[in-house]
Amino acid sequence: MAIGVPTNKKQKKKKNDLTRHLTYSNKKSVNDIMKTPKSKLVNIWGKTEKDANTRNFLFYGDNLPIMAKLLDNRKISGKVRLVYIDPPYSTQTAFHSRKLSHAYEDNLTGAEFIEFLRARLILLRELLAEDGSIYLHLDEKMVFHIKVIMDEIFGLNNYKNCIVRKKCNPKNYTRKKYGNISDYILFYTKSDQYVWNRPIEPWTEDRALKEYQYIEEKTGRRYKKVPIHAPGVRNGETGKPWRGMLPPPGKHWQYTPQKLDILDAENKIYWSPNGNPRRKVYLDENPGVSVQDIWLDYRDAHNQNIKITGYPTEKNPELLKRIIEASSNPDDIVLDCFCGSGTTLEIAHRLGRRWIGIDNSVEAMRTVLDRFAKGTEMMGDFVSKRKNKNQLPSLFEPIECEIEQGTRASKHRPIKNFSLIADVKCARDIEPVVDEWIKHQR
Ligand SMILES: C[S@@+](CC[C@H](N)C(=O)[O-])C[C@H]1O[C@@H](n2cnc3c(N)ncnc32)[C@H](O)[C@@H]1O
Q1: Fewer beta carbons below 10 Å: N end or C end of the chain?
Q2: Comparing C-alpha atoms, which of 120, 20, 46, 35 is closest to residue 417?
């Protein structure tokens, strides 16, 4: 096992002062981006964005001028606790919903793509609260370029994680390289004081028994033994002898000798037959394992047979639940300015957060409103409707679903407490969608 000794804080700071910049043509100054012309907004449904009782907003239009406008709103600007965005990934693809309606185009490449996202990230930083967090979802194509841009905007010191998400099931890959089943979520905060509700994966019996192998005779409590020293020499209390013993070479005690005495008096130190002390950590004091930065359980809806809207590239609701619970509290504002089918918005709503969603696709608006009114439905094309399960499907048999299309969850609670607001430039585009929605409200 490799043992590293952390460098001291001064050295660390020096390293982090090394600001990296990405240079490319047509990179605007932050000042110019902050002068982005603001949207003129028109209220379509519900109360205006200035109304004190409005908790949630769905905006239709380009997110850049809309966010420039939101910066004027004192109840929103600098108050957003959490941003999750899942923008286009520079795939050069036109995306359609499962009903084959056009959803959006993902055509920008290279510097144009980077600048498109950079401008939005600069405004998002201004909208974020000082203790806010931002999660940006991308795939391998642009994530490394955008990591450098995020370092520029949020600061390398505020980089927290690059989460690796398993996005789909293994493919029968025939190309001469490894199968690609991952994408990435960059997690940054605006400062080092940020909301963090430590996510935990509860113990499985198997894992708990493997890790906590010992049982305390008197109490019957299950525990494991961990070292009481850590790498690095210290000259203070934790470098002094305890019970006549110095910490091993190159190490220091994790606690002061006084604290170690207390732990020992509480019978929380295990002494090996040859006199080596270790600390006892009890299973019943540990609710589970802290979540790590590889997430295997949140494959895209299409790969997990869960309920979906049918919008292309929609994300798994459980993924959003984890992020929203970890980095926000009830009543906080959660913002997704590439909201697509509204996964972030619905989960934020269900978790008692306020939310702001923006998208410039008519199909996204149709999908969000439909999702709010009627819920999601099973995709269901994993299972053939054939009665005899052993009978092989004919090659030309149409795929039929065991789960009838069109059945929605009976328990769905419609989401109505929000305002729908559009940029005047494009408000007319969503008239038919809104007429449908209003009819459904009656
Ligand atoms: C990858 S999808 C988001 C999917 C979403 N996470 C979900 O769970 O459904 C990207 C979305 O960004 C939207 N979009 C792209 N450019 C935009 C812009 N300039 N302003 C607002 N929305 C934009 C697209 O219409 C699309 O819905």
Answers
A1: N
A2: 46
In order, the DSSP letters of 64-126 are HHHHHHHTT-TTTTTTEEEEEE----S--EEEE-TT--EEEEE---HHHHHHHHHHHHHHHHH
DSSP 8-state secondary structure symbol assigned to residue 231: E
Question: In the listed set 289, 306, 333, which residue is the last one of a domain according to the structure?
Answer: 289
pLDDT score of 385 more than 50: no
CATH assignment at residue 134: 3.40.50.150
Work out how many domains the chain is built from and give that number.
Answer: 2
Q: Of 263, 289, 315, which residue constitutes the final position of a domain?
A: 289
Structure token pair of residue 204: 């499985």
Residue 388 — very low, low, confident or very high, per pLDDT cuts 50/70/90? very low
Nearest CA owner, ligand 1 atom 10 = 87
pTM above 0.70, yes or no: yes
- Helix, strand, or coil (residue 261): helix
Query: 278 with 184, same domain?
Result: no
Residues 247 and 115 grouped into a single domain: no
Q: Assess whether the C-beta atom of 279 lies below 6 angstroms from ligand 1.
A: no
Cβ of residue 370 lying under 6 Å from some atom of ligand 1 = no
User: Measured from the CB, is residue 104 less than 6 Å from ligand 1?
Assistant: yes
Please give the share of the chain, as a percent, with pLDDT higher than 90.
74
Q: Does one domain contain both 107 and 224?
A: no
Tell me: do 207 and 324 sit in the same domain. Answer: no
Range of the domain at 262: 202-289
Residue 367 falls within a domain, yes or no?
yes
* Nearest-atom index, ligand 1, CA of 87: 10
Q: Is 87 in the pocket of ligand 1 (CB under 6 A)?
A: yes
Spatial CB neighbours of 197, under 8 Å, sequence gap ≥ 6: 325, 326, 327, 329
With respect to residue 15, please indicate whether it lies within any of the assigned structural domains.
Answer: no
Look up residue 30 and give its DSSP letter. H
CB atoms within 10 A of CB 379: 19
**First-to-final CA distance of the chain:** 66
In a shared domain, residues 318 and 249 = no
Centre of ligand 1 to C-alpha 116, Å, is 13
Residue range 218-266, pLDDT digits in tens: 999 999 999 999 999 999 999 999 999 999 999 999 999 999 999 999 9
Long-range contact pairs involving 263-272 (C-beta distance under 8 Å, separation at least 24) = 269/228, 270/214, 270/225
CB atoms within 10 A of CB 87: 21
